[in-house]
Amino acid sequence: MKLRYLFVILLITSFLLPQQSSQAQSTAPTIDAVSAISIDSENGQVLMSQNADEILQVGSISKLLSVYVALKTIEAQDEWTRESIVPISDEAYQLSQDYNIGNVPLRQDYNYTVNELVEAVSINLANGATLALAEMVGETEADFVKMMETQLLEWGVEEFNLINSTGLEDNGETNAFSAEVAAIIAYHLVNDFPDYLDYSDQAKAVFKPNTDDAIDMNNYNQMLKGKPYERENVLGLMPGSSEQDGNSFVGYSNEDEFGIITVVLGTEDEDTRYEETDRLMDYSYSAYMKELVVSEGQPTTQVNTIKVEGSSESEAELIYGENMSLVVPIIDTAPRLEYEFSSNDALFEDRSYLVAPVEQGEVVGEMTIYGAGTEFTYLPSTKGNHVPVVQAEPIEEAAWYVNGWHSFSNGVSNTWESTRRFFVDLFN
């Protein structure tokens, strides 16, 4: 049985920021691109959206998905680590020798680690390195593309067209998906593999340093430090382009612990994608703020008392299992919060109470937190506005004789009540 409770409370005065509201942009800008989106990188909340569901050819941006699938698969295998040697096939070798596209030249008599090739992809958009990783993980590129498709489906993405692992054009086509999908990919990459930003925020690096094959890599991302469109606190991620749909960029920025992911797809020239990303970031930070609404370990006072049977403890002691922040508009009045609790069906099993034993940290349910009077949208498969509710301390099962006494007492009570009702009914 689902237990649901709804509460509305007034948020603390930390949300009162009248001095900032005068600077906030109340209207989202129109981005000079086919589509665009900005999201909170922690919860996946949509901050701005412009034709974000339109499918476009994205080129190298699809390498973000290739890197994600490669890292996820490698870390799930006991035989592989980030320091594992990646075989270089004839196809990967030949592709890496094309200097007209993003690449680092590979050799078949050299050893290259997963880390080295991921760095080359992240900085130099290295196509040969991308193919080598794909063939290591999927054995063939075709099988790896199927893995990429499976990952998108697991995230709830249904509309896309994947041709290869690199995003290179093939017969006039390249990998295609929407700005929303690009944001979902970037969201999972920076949350599941946060160290990926250590690769992508490097303006320059050397591939195979201290060897006779050392090569300077110059990041294609023009918003990093020292680049023409440098913006402080931008840490990645990746540009792309296609003959059909123009230039694109997926960016990540973190200012004052407020991380955002932006996607701009389909600009007419390379410079515009960075200029419009800068405008999109300006809007996101001027119109929204991030506030911690509950902390890990904080008692869940918004949940009604939940009884416990089979223990000397009569009530569950519930706390929040992790921190939860909301991104809210910068306004003059303090928004109210609404709390909705949903119980863990596996624990309650059509009951309104818990049965001992209950382990410390056991997830008893989930709290969904809303800003009253506001409609927030979260991308599929992201964290959203949910936070786990857990048991604070272990609840031990009572000794057999205690439970036996409780059962006896309940039995006597039930028998007496039945007898009383019998005589009441008899004489009435």
From TrEMBL:
Keywords linked to the UniProt accession: Carboxypeptidase, Cell shape, Cell wall biogenesis/degradation, Hydrolase, Peptidoglycan synthesis, Protease, Signal
Signal peptide positions (record): 1-24
Name of this protein: D-alanyl-D-alanine carboxypeptidase
Similarity comment: family membership: Belongs to the peptidase S11 family.
Organism: Ruoffia tabacinasalis
GO MF terms, alphabetically ordered: carboxypeptidase activity
Ranges of residues in domain Peptidase S11 D-alanyl-D-alanine carboxypeptidase A N-terminal: 25-267
Classification via InterPro entries: Beta-lactam/transpept-like (IPR012338), Peniciliin-bd_prot_C_sf (IPR015956), Peptidase_S11 (IPR018044), Peptidase_S11_C_sf (IPR037167), Peptidase_S11_N (IPR001967)
Role summary: Removes C-terminal D-alanyl residues from sugar-peptide cell wall precursors.
Gene3D superfamilies per record: D-Ala-D-Ala carboxypeptidase, C-terminal domain, DD-peptidase/beta-lactamase superfamily
Pfam families assigned to the protein according to its UniProt record, in alphabetical order: Peptidase_S11
